[in-house]
Amino acid sequence: MIPDGATMTALFASGRIIDAILGLVALEAATLVAWRVHRGGRFALTPLICSLASGAALMLAVRAALIGSDWTVVALCLFASLMAHLGEVAWRMFGGSRGASDPAMPDLRQPGRPVTRRA
Fold it and tell me: What is the pTM assigned to this prediction?
């Protein structure tokens, strides 16, 4: 069943559409964490959580703009997204493993080591 125009307008004007999307992001995060815990997946949780947090903060910024919040709220959400993104980048460059997760990232702890390129 496709919602009518008035319903969609109300969902966007109230920001509830973003709430629904954030719920799906939270479900995705919980599912991936549970999979990692119970199945012993090989993916690292830190960059995953940082990436999801960055996207969630961007969606909160959109929600704040949709409902007419003060510009400082939007700016704070954008800043939170930036910090989460930089946390992921820093983890990948300086703190994470360079195995199967991202072979193209240079190992900055070993100067002179050639960087592998993806095919």
Answer: 0.73
